[in-house]
Prior knowledge:
This protein is of the alpha+beta class. It has one domain (75-218, 243-413): Beta-lactamase, CATH 3.40.710.10. The protein contains 14 helices and 13 strands. The strands form three sheets. Strands 1, 2, 3, 4, 11, 12 and 13 form a seven-stranded antiparallel β-sheet that branches. Strands 6-8-5-7 form a four-stranded mixed β-sheet. A two-stranded antiparallel sheet has the order 9-10. A hairpin with a 2-residue loop joins strand 2 (44-51) and strand 3. Helix 2 runs antiparallel to helix 14, helix 3 (81-95) crosses helix 8 and helix 6 packs across helix 7 (174-187). The protein is globular and about 60 Å long. The relative contact order is 0.18.
Amino acid sequence: MDFLRLIRQLQGKADFEVQGTCTPEFEPLIQALRQTVPPETKGGVALAVYFRGEKVVDLWMGLQQGATLWKEDTLSLSYSTGKGVLSTLVHILASKGLLEYDRPVCEYWPEFKGSGKEKITLRHLLSHSSGLHDIRHLIESASVMLDWNAMLEAYEKAIPRFEPDAASAYQALSFGWLVGGVIEKVMKEPLATTLKRELVHPLGIDGEAYFGLPKSELGRVAHPYRDQPLTDSKPRPNKASRSLSLMQKVMKMTGQDPADARDAFNPYGIGKFDFFSPEALQVPIPAVNGVFTARALAKIYAMLASGGEFDGKRYITAPVFRKLSKIQNRRRDRVMPIPMHWRLGYHRIITMGKRVPNGFGHIGYNGSGAWCDPTRQLSFAFVTSFSTESMTGDPRLWWLSQRTLQVVDDLISGK
Length: 415
């Protein structure tokens, strides 16, 4: 091994040798990937792309953790990117007649009934219009998130902030227990069991997609590089004394209430809750702690890019696909600072200029993201071990999405 390369690894710096495979037409993405990880950056990345049903990009580079290089089978905790996977599982079950979008949730989950939730349907949960975005006032501490049953019980007692479909408010954390709870009540088995049988195993991505990681796989997870240890959250301030961050000030100036975002993202004690701890990785927190390889995410979205079919097997029926890919509303979200154009579990694609009106997917808080464009028959996934924190995605993700679309459009046009 090159001596300077060894020194860089010991310093926690990225390894710039891109590994993996890439077809000749997509080689511009190798350089684009290098550009996303400048020399001073710590961490690693993986990128996967499917075009017309074929895997054309499967690349990775940098460090998984410490001096350990990112490997072909490295898993990445992908935060909200997992919401798209959970939603895809819903649509597979809907295609089998096990779930209906406009049926009240309490008909599947009797304990959910009460506190004004009787009219909430699966459609409302998937399109973030249920009014159940709050977690801050629902549990005493973020540590309760480690208890799946306690979280289901908390949302059984929750009171919606508004009438179903009266507004949109991103269910940043609650989405996983609400949607995952419906799946468990209907299937009468753990969520992980349903995910593996209905999606992971049939699609051939065993060992590459989890909600609740087996203990034996903990060593495969990429970890972010933190300069400071996690600290406890500050004492609870009263409303009058609460100071606003720059983002919160911008939100308030544009008419949003920053408290909605705080209530959706920040249960008390979240400042010292480590999603990368062995305890947190091994329990299902489906809105935020799904772990995946980039190629698994890209393959899931390749199936969606083909209208619900992959390698001769149909996972999602045509009528269900039309419903899941339809924009539910274009109104402003109370939690997210940008227009989301919610579908049933997915949102619009964010790029640096390229238009993808029929595309959809989901981004994650740490800069990960996955999406598909049925029009171009294209799917894309990007995962990282960066410690980036952003509600609207990472510029690296936007740039790689943009370059991928440029390459594909050149291929389609014959340039």
